[in-house]
Each structure stands twice: as C-alpha cells, then as structure tokens.
Amino acid sequence: MKRYITDSARRLEESTVKVLPAPISPEMQLVKAYPDIKYQAFLGFGAALTEASGHTFAQMDEATQEHFLNLCFSEEHNRYSLCRLSIQSCDFSLVPRSYMDAPSETLEGFSIDDDWAYVLPLAKAAQRVNPRLEFLASPWSPPAWAKTTRTMKLGGHLRPGMQDQWARMIARMIADYRTAGVNIGRITVQNEPQAAQTWESCLYSTSQEMAFLHEHLKPALRAEGLGHVKTFIWDHNKDRVLDRATEALADPKAALDVDGIAFHWYAGDHFEALRATRDVIGPDRELILSEGCDFYTAGDEWWELSHAEHYAREVIGDFEAGANAILDWNILLNAQGGPNHVGNYCDAPIMFDEESGNLNVRLPFYYLGHFSHFLRIGARRMLVTRYTSWIETCGFVNPDGQRVLFVLNRRDEDCDFDLTWGSSAVGRRIAHLDAPAHSIQTICW
C-alpha cells in the first residue's frame, strides 16, 4: 500500500504502509472501504482554458510554457483530462467579443479567428501533452444584436426570432474548432442562466432553456453532423440545481435532449441537493462541476491553505454526492488575477508574474493533483464510511482494480484511523494510518 501526503511543507510525499490481516473484525476508529459497492463513473478532471489563461500563457518563455503544460497535463503530474472553453467571450476575456458582428440567416461573417490569438494555441498545446484531452464549451452570452438588451453584458434575454441563428452559431463554432483539431464533446446551453452579471450574461427560465435546447440547439448540432455532442443544462449554482433538474426533466420528450447537468460551487456546499439531483437525473446522465474558484488574494500565502482545503472539500463532497467530473475555473492567471475586462479578478492554482517571469504553483494545485493524478477515466466511486467528521473521505476503484482513497483533515489536530476492507475473517485487511493536521492524502492499494 502506498500513501502520498501533501500539507504546508510536503508535496505528494510518498511512503509505504504495512497491510495486516484482520481475523477479528475491528470496531473503533475505522475508515471502511467497500470496493464491491460502486456508484458513478469518473469522467475527467481539469480547468478552463479562458482567453485570460491563453494570454498569460503567451507571455511565458518557451521553457516556462513547457513546464506549465507538463504540470497540468503530463502523466507525471496532474493529468488534466477535461477542460472548459468559452463560446464567444466571457469575463476572463480581453474584451467582449462575438463571432458575428451583425445578424445573417446564412451566418455570413461568422469567424473564430480571434480565438486563434490565445485560446486555440493553448488548447492545442495542451493536446500535444495529453492527446486524449476532452473539452466542454459554454456560452456566456449571445451577440449583442441577438439580445433584448442589445449588449452582451447585464443579463437580458435571447430575442424572439434569434434562436435559430444563435443555435447555428454555437454549432458552427464547434464545427470550426473541430476543423482546427480541437474536438468539443460536451456543451452547456448557457453559463449561469439566472445571473444578470456586469459581464457577458444571458437569462433563461427553465422553459426557455429547454425550448432552446430541444427546438433549436439539438437540431442545429445534428445539421452540422454533431449529433454526438452531449448537451448540459443549468451550469449554475448548487442551491437551485435540484429545482432546475426537476423542472427541466418534467417533459419526457424534451428531457431526451438532456445528457447531463453542469453546476457551480459559488452558493456553498449544498451537497444534499446535489445528491438528490443525482437521484432525479438517474445513473446514465452526467453531473459535472463546471466552474469554481476562490477570490483574489494578491499572492498572499496565508490564504493558500484555506483555498486548497476549500477545493478539496468541494471535490470530495461533490464526488460523494454523485458528480462525474470536476473542472476548476481559470487554469492559469497573471499575478493580478486576470486579465479580466470587468475587473472581476480571482485566484488560480497557478499564477504567472509577467514582470519577474516567476511561475507560482500554489498549494491548491497540489491538493487538486491528489484527485486528478490518481484517478483514471472510468474509475467507479466506491462506498467509504468513516468513524468521525474530523476527516473527510472519498474512494474510487480504477479500471485496473486499484483502490484509491482520499483523506482530508482540515483540523488543527492529527487524527488516527484504521483503514479496513474485506468482509471475511480470511480476506479482511487492516492498515494503521494517521491524517496529519491540515493535510490531504491519497492511499493506493
């Protein structure tokens, strides 16, 4: 059995743990793993390749770029396997931008050329390191001319009569990216459809979202030969995810077009709502955390542990509630938490100081790496029970049969526990372990 620990001083420090037979069933201070009781499959782990990330990446010298790419995508490090892209611009773009400047039934003037400046080069560089990298894409807003407010910012709605053009623009973007060698296999209908943000945003009620998906977006995808692309709804916070899922799937015919639910973390835990959402959507639809980040701290190291533990608690809680994949927000930002055209700055697990040329790989990146490095696509979550709330746990069985257990301790005190599995006196095993204060560990056997 191998154990890997990260805390404020250590980074994936490896050690060997002795496994002993347990002929008498132990009862106290247990973490129990049940590898034969399995739940949802793991589909991927990664982050968003925003224009801000691509612009920051472009400021690095070649050696730093390669170091960054290897940290995120190589087999030796975080193994990111699923990344998010924006359809048109978002707040972490340099400026608001549309693929078309004016309406056109034939999509005359449509172009993704602006994405070749920073987004596509980063996506293709990531694919070079991980050729199996997959993508999910989300729109923040239709073009200004297609909205009731005539601006991409401040919410508003998609204008009546513009649904077909907007749907065909989304399909065309995916087709053009495919031609460029970047295959988008999943999309969401709208990022945060109930938030009128000061940046690119658009409002959809449940009925509006489902009508656009069923009557316009799915037909447009099929017309472009993209019927295989999976479509997700909601893409907003967990506090209302259960309400949206229940309402959206009430129409059995329209529900056939929903391949999954995407959600964000900004409203807090709500793990119970997410678990109930998994029950509502069933085992065959996907449940993906499509965005989460922490506030900008101007490089203050004091916040690194707090943010790292926030990430880890979120990942464990979402996995335990039935999530299939986890996507961080910006994969990379500059030292100012941008660039961002509305000043909506935030932290990222990796930040680059353009003046000094220093790549700041922060503690949250290593905490996230515990999950992304050790889980393999197709792994199944296994049942794990624990004797105390002092530690948080989650476990998976990889496709090759390897068991992987994550243990998070956010307290100031160490916590001892015995890991046990197996149900018979002959097959039962036990390992004596501890969870150091403010640490995360991965145990593999």
Radius of gyration: 22 Å
Placed side by side, the strands forming the largest sheet appear as: 2-1-21-18-17-16-4-19-20-3
Q: pLDDT average, as an integer?
A: 97
Strand content is: 25-35%
Uncertain spans:
none
Output the structural class: alpha/beta
Tell me how many strands there are.
21
The major pleated sheet works out as: 10 strands, mixed
N/C terminus separation: 5 Å
Structure annotation, total helices: 10
Helical content stands at: 25-40%
Shape: globular
Keywords, separated by commas or semicolons:
27% helix, 445 residues, alpha/beta, 8-stranded parallel sheet, 10 helices, 10-stranded mixed sheet
Q: Care to give the gist of this entry?
A:
With 445 residues, the chain is α/β, with parallel strands linked by helices.
Architecture overview:
This protein is an alpha/beta fold and 445 residues long. It is built from ten helices and 21 strands. The protein has a ten-stranded mixed sheet with strand order 2-1-21-18-17-16-4-19-20-3, covered by helices on one side. Strands 5-12-11-10-9-8-7-6 form an eight-stranded parallel sheet, sandwiched between helices. Strands 13-14-15 form a three-stranded mixed sheet. Strand 17 and strand 18 form a beta hairpin. Helix 2 crosses helix 3, helix 4 crosses helix 5 and helix 9 runs parallel beside helix 10. It is globular. The termini are close together. The mean pLDDT is 97.
